[in-house]
Amino acid sequence: MTLIFPLMFGLVLGLVHYYLWRRLVRDTLPPGRGRRVATTALVVLYALMVSALVVTRITPTGSAWLAWPGYLWLAVAFYAAVLLAVLEIPRLLLNRTVGRRERTAVPVVAGAPAPAPEQVPEPAPKPVVDPGRRLFIARSLAVASGLAAGGVVGYGATQALGDPRINRVPVKLAKLDSSLAGFRIAVVSDIHLGPLLGRAHTERIVRTINRLEPDLVAIVGDLVDGTVAQLGEAAAPLRDLSSAHGSFFVTGNHEYYSGHEQWITELERLGVNALRNERVRISRGNAFFELAGVNDVTGEQSDDAPDLARALDGRDERQPVVLLAHQPVQVREAARMGVDLQLSGHTHGGQMFPFTLAVPLQQPVTSGLATVDGTQVYVSNGAGFWGPPVRVGAPPEVALVELHHNFAIE
Predict the structure, then answer these.
(1) In this structure, what DSSP letter does residue 374 have?
(2) Can you give the pTM of this predicted structure?
(3) Per-residue pLDDT tens for 318-328?
(4) Inter-residue contact 382 to 151 (CB < 8 Å)
(5) Which residue ranges in the chain fall short of pLDDT 70?
(6) C-alpha to C-alpha distances, 253 to 156, 159, 347, nearest whole angstrom
(7) Measuring CA to CA, which residue among 407, 353, 409 is closest to residue 381?
(8) Membrane spanning segments where (predicted)?
(9) What stretch of H or E contains 156?
(10) Which of 18, 215, 234, 361 is at a distance of 20 to 30 A from 88, taking alpha carbons?
């Protein structure tokens, strides 16, 4: 990923910080030293946040000292802005009620006869602003939004940094041979090794998966946010993954920002098999299903585009196909080609509400199991995070997908 995105993101966040300054500083503090100090603090926090966005892209390792405060402030600023925006209508209504009305006297022209009492028009009431009460309202809303934003971010951090949840997902496949019923696939996505998540994070995920004793492990993209030289040691515990049929990987969009070719080589060295527009046969006795994997759609920009037709060429259509594809949007092509089940990630489940409401604008499924055009697709929330170490309404997870035969869950 180039620096264009973080710089454009920084510009948008600059506008957000201007809004925060208006509501948290200008509206709550009179001109003077206090306002200057608060303005300076907000500018410093903005600079810290932008620096974190840029520096962590250049050097993921060794930048945690900058990433932690920068990304946490990003989350606090986001939720403070959202809450203040929601409070704009209550603010307007409250401000309309704080004025008092006074009657305006009718001017008298010198030398003119005094008008008869019945001719004196009723003076129009004139609203007069009570600055003290308006200041009280501004400060009250600022404190309320600040405390609420801090509370939401604190809760979200405990979710993002805690152990991933285990989500057991039974899936019914009509073509599955009865001897394969109960086959278990551990699905993990969006681990996002980088400035805030390192080797300990990988070790925790490996322990979680191995405790499930899966038959197969599927890592469906966005493993890293950095090069092999920077994060190879953090990924090393993946060699300890244990399953009867091995571990498999497909690229996500972030691999193409991090040197995907080197990472594929490194994962193969660690015993994780990359499926690059290809498939393998997963057998139990004489029964089998096809496990296919396609590159992420971002690979088109790196001459490594997804090619599902190639991955499925020559398959036995009487047997079920399970497809690993990073982005849920790839399910539409999968459905046209008769894929039975697609396993995906990418969305993070929205990661931070209300982004969960925006994901459907780009992807057909945000989280969980759904059916799209006749093909089932399971979308994982992911086990890591991108940007702020915060998850609100979308806890991290490792899914255990259990395949069942002929629509009967055993």
Answers:
(1) T
(2) 0.86
(3) 999 999 999 99
(4) no
(5) 1-6, 98-130, 406-410
(6) 25, 24, 11
(7) 353
(8) 6-25, 37-59, 71-94, 136-157
(9) helix 131-161
(10) 361
Find the DSSP H helices in 167-325. Answer: 199-212, 228-235, 260-269, 308-312
DSSP per-residue codes, 23-60:
IIIITTS-TTHHHHHHHHHHHHHHHHHHHHHHHHHH-S
> What would the two tokens of residue 322 be?
């399970």
Please tell me what DSSP assigns to residue 62. T
Say how far residue 123 (Cα) sits from the centre of its chain: 58
Q: Give the chain's length.
A: 410
Say which DSSP state 164 is in: P
Helices (H) and strands (E) in the chain, counts: 10, 14
DSSP code at position 160: H
- CB 271, CB 219: distance < 8 Å: no
- CATH superfamily, domain at 166-405: Metallo-dependent phosphatases (3.60.21.10)
Q: Give me the sheet containing 165-173, strands edge to edge.
A: 165-173, 397-405, 183-188, 216-219, 247-249, 272-274
Alpha-carbon gap, residue 18 to 65, rounded angstroms: 26
- Asked if residues 152 and 193 have their Cβ atoms less than 8 Å apart, the reply is no
Token pair in block for residue 100: 């008092």
Distance CA 264, CA 322 (A): 21
- Delimit the CATH 3.60.21.10 region(s) of the chain: 166-405
148, two tokens? 């609420």
Instruction: Confirm if 120 and 106 have CB atoms less than 8 A apart.
Output: yes
166 within 8 A of 398, measured Cβ to Cβ: yes
Beta bridge partners of 171: 403
- Sign of the alpha-carbon torsion through 149, 152, 155, 157: negative
Q: How do residues 272-295 score in pLDDT, each as one tens digit?
A: 999 999 999 999 888 999 999 999
Encode pLDDT of 347-371 as tens digits.
Answer: 999 999 999 888 999 999 999 999 9
Helix/strand/coil for 235: helix
Residue 221 dihedral angles phi and psi, to the nearest 5°? 95, 165
Residues ≥6 apart with Cβ < 8 Å to 270: 235, 236, 238, 239
Type and span of the H or E element at 180:
none
